[in-house]
Amino acid sequence: VSRYLASLQGGVAGFLSRRSSKFRANLRRIARRADEEGITYEYLTDFSDDTPWDKVYQDILTIEARSWKGQAGTGIVDDAMQRFYRNMIPRLATKGALRVLFLRKGDERIGFVFGGVWGQVYRGLQLSYDNDWRSHSLGNLAQLRIVEHLCDEGVAWYDLGSELEYKARWAERTMETISLVIRRW
Q1: Rounded to an integer, what distance in angstroms lies between the CA atom of residue 93 and that of residue 99?
Q2: Is the four-CA dihedral 39, 100, 155, 25 of positive or negative sign?
Q3: What is the mean pLDDT of residues 156-162?
Q4: Are residues 137 and 130 in contact, defined by beta-carbon separation less than 8 angstroms?
Q5: Which residues fall within 8 angstroms of residue 38, CB to CB, at 6 or more apart?
Q6: Which of 74, 107, 113, 137 could connect to 142 by a Cys-Cys bridge, CB 3.0–4.6 Å?
Q7: What is the DSSP secondary-structure string of the chain?
Q8: Contact 140/129 with Cβ under 8 angstroms?
C-alpha cells in the first residue's frame, strides 16, 4: 500500500516552503476567512478526568454523523469502523499518543482531525467536518492547524495514510507498506 508522508523539518515555515505558491496562498485565504468567521481551535493531548477520551470520541462521532461521509453511512459511523476506533482511541490516550484537534464555532465543535504520535511520526487517522461548513474548506484548515501543533511538539513526520489524491498536495514522499496478520494456530 502506498502512503503519503510530509516532512515537518524546519517547522511550519519549512513545511510550507515545500508546497506550491498557489497552495500556500489558498491556505492563507482559508485561514483568514476562518479567523473572520470566528472559527477557533482546540488541541487535545491530555485525556484525563477533565477531558475523558470517551467524551471526545462521542463528539467526534457526532461531527462525523453531520459530515458527507456520515450522511452517506460511511466513515467512522460505520459499525466496524466505530468498534475499531472505540478500541484504538483509549489505547492511544493511555499511552499519551492521541492527538485531537477540533475546529469550533462558538461552543460547537464543527470539525476534527485525530491521530497518534509514535516517536517522531504522527499518523493521521481521521479527519471530518460538519457538511454545513463545506464551503469553508475545513479539511484543509484542520490539516494546517494540526501541522502547526505537531511542529510545536517537534514531530518530524506526518504520515497522512493511504494514497488519496488530495493528500499528494500535503506530502513530498510516498512509502510502501504491507499489512501482516499474526494469529495463533
Answers
A1: 8
A2: negative
A3: 92
A4: no
A5: 105, 106
A6: 113
A7: -EEEEEE-TTHHHHHHHTS-HHHHHHHHHHHHHHHHHTEEEEEE---STTS-HHHHHHHHHHHHHTSHHHHTT-GGGSHHHHHHHHHHHHHHHHTT-EEEEEEEETTEEEEEEEEEEETTEEEEEEEEE-GGGGGG-HHHHHHHHHHHHHHHHT--EEEEEE--GGGGGG-SEEEE---------
A8: no
Per cent of the chain over pLDDT 90 is 76
Amino acid at residue number 107: D
Residue with cell 495463533: 184
Rounded Cα gap, residues 138 and 20, in angstroms: 19
Task: For residue 153, list its beta bridge partners.
Answer: none
- Lowest-pLDDT choice from 40-44, 50-54, 95-99: 50-54
pLDDT, one tens digit per residue, over 103-137 is 999 999 999 999 999 999 999 999 999 999 999 99
Tell me the whole-structure pTM to 2 decimals: 0.91
Q: What are phi and psi of 28, to 5 degrees?
A: -60, -40
Instruction: Report residue 179: phi and psi, to 5°.
Output: -100, 140
87 to 79, 91, 136: CA distances (angstroms): 12, 7, 32
